[in-house]
Design goal:
With 209 residues, the protein is α/β, with parallel strands linked by helices. The protein is 54% helix and 13% strand. The chain has helices at 20-33, 48-58, 67-92, 102-112, 117-128, 143-150, 162-178, 192-204; strands spanning 8-14, 38-42, 95-99, 135-140, 183-187. Strands 2-3-1-4-5 form a five-stranded parallel β-sheet, sandwiched between helices. The two termini are 18 Å apart. Bound molecules: P1-(5'-adenosyl)P5-(5'-thymidyl)pentaphosphate. P1-(5'-adenosyl)P5-(5'-thymidyl)pentaphosphate (T5A) binds next to helix 1, helix 4, helix 6 and helix 8.
Length: 209
């Protein structure tokens, strides 16, 4: 279960090419200028095991996996990241900014793939020990625009039909609507600087640890 912590966990979510990595960089600069320890990470990845799992799943020669295997690989990488990186950083009082987290699994594996919500929630809970973000920033963008930004023939997920990406987007928006206290939804067509400032305003307003 989630215990008391001194730091803050901020996650960034959205579809392909929505600008998550760019926003993470902007937030990192803003947080560091305020003198806080900042730890950034990405999913899947962020640990030796996680990066190997990422390569196995999303490497260019990787075949689309069974959907349950896909769920379990994403959450296995998450378990390693939480225990090795995220919890220790939160215990030190750092701001952890993670590019994708539990809500990617809810959006892609539940809303996108159709895996039962209870199974996705169970896998997320086991992987994280119930550790929820303090704030989740959703970069909302029409899928065709995000895929155009990415501009590459990418991994098997990027090659999913547009309908899949539309379900992912709708799923994210539904999650955000249900839990407005944890979510900040930003229109990702805005310039990167405006997005970073809007997200930073919410992070700075999080209750003190
Ligand atoms: N996945 C992941 C699951 O299915 N379940 C899970 O549980 C998890 C954790 C990860 C894949 O795995 C899936 C989801 C994904 O399909 P990934 O390679 O990490 O794959 O892919 P993305 O997370 O989509 O990362 P990308 O790098 O493709 O996109 P970003 O990070 O959203 O976008 P970014 O910042 O790299 O920007 C893309 C381009 O747009 C420009 C940038 O300069 C860049 O060229 N850009 C902007 N242009 C205009 N305006 C802005 N505001 C812009 N911001 C960035």
């Amino acid at each position: 279960m989630s215990g008391p912590r001194r730091g803050r966990l901020v996650t960034i979510e959205g579809g392909e090419g929505a600008g998550k990595t760019t926003l993470q960089g902007g937030l990192e600069r803003l947080a560091r200028s305020g003198g806080r320890e900042v730890v950034t990470c990405r999913e899947p990845g962020g640990t030796h095991l996680g990066e190997r799992l990422r390569e196995a799943l999303l490497g260019h020669d990787a075949e689309p996996p069974d959907r349950v295997a896909e769920l379990l690989v994403f959450t296995a990488a998450r378990a390693q990241l939480v225990s090795e990186v995220v919890r220790p950083a939160l215990d030190r009082g750092a701001i952890v900014i993670c590019d994708r987290y539990i809500d990617s699994t809810i959006a892609y594996q539940h809303h996108g793939r159709g895996i039962a919500r209870a199974d996705v929630d169970a896998a997320n809970a086991v992987a994280t020990g119930g550790l929820l973000p303090d704030l989740t920033v959703l970069l909302d963008l029409p899928p065709y625009e995000g895929l155009r930004r990415v501009g590459r023939v990418g991994d098997y997920l990027e090659r999913e039909p547009l309908d899949f990406h539309r379900r992912v987007r709708a799923g994210y928006l539904a999650e955000a609507e249900q839990h407005p206290a944890r979510w900040l939804v930003l229109d990702a067509v805005q310039p990167p600087e405006a997005l970073a400032e809007a997200a930073w305003e919410r992070i700075a307003a999080l209750p003190a640890a």
